[in-house]
């Protein structure tokens, strides 16, 4: 069997974009050219790669096998290029990370600084996004790693490392509940809350905990910005729910306090370093993953006692 790898790219882009027309826009070709290349690829493989009769591209089992081969080959090329660059002492390459809003702060900055100082020739891209989009970016190989809270399980995404961290109530030091040793979900349900939007995993965990306790949480303020959530806690007496390390500077200054929430769902929370299952990584990417494991994930375990 002789398969033309260039044609697999047309199949990959059509599948990734959802249609041949969308892929044609990306590749700057006519949709008929995309269709013709995929038809020739099917002739080369001797089997159908796309389910017929659908407006949106759906792959057959054979189509998925071809895409898996293509992505494995692209990863291998990336690894080879990095190894050759390392051998030539060029120390060049690229790294892409997706990260949740909750991880932005001094610990993440120090992690990036350590990587940049070790690999000054590496270009780096960081996307701040919600967990749902992060999974999609990983599956499409648009980022190498994702850092997320308790992501929903996906068969093609694996956790390389994880660290335990609870979600806690964050409130002004002057709030009437600031001296409590813990709060219940019922306590939260009776307070004015400022929370992440529903697409963020932190918010989904809070909603799940409320449902399991027979409650419904209705925040009066929502945002994808932790800076805004903490502002609402300081200035307006609202309570937010976050990992303590996301507001470590404010906790250290005494402006805000962290109070444990006495519900198992918010105690058994983990931060994960995610990657696509089966993807191989160049040496500099494994180094980045190791820095995240050693510096960022342990920093999540901020004491609030």
From TrEMBL:
Key words, A-Z: DNA-binding, Transcription, Transcription regulation
UniProt-recorded Gene Ontology molecular function terms: DNA binding; DNA-binding transcription factor activity
Keyword Transcription: yes
A single GO cellular-component term on record: cytosol
Chain ranges passing through the membrane: none
InterPro entries linked: HTH-type_LysR_regulators, LysR_HTH_N, LysR_subst-bd, WH-like_DNA-bd_sf, WH_DNA-bd_sf
HTH lysR-type domain span: 16-60
Annotated family: Belongs to the LysR transcriptional regulatory family.
PANTHER family membership: HTH-TYPE TRANSCRIPTIONAL REGULATOR YBHD, NITROGEN ASSIMILATION TRANSCRIPTIONAL ACTIVATOR-RELATED
Protein name stated in the entry: LysR family transcriptional regulator
Organism of derivation: Paenirhodobacter huangdaonensis
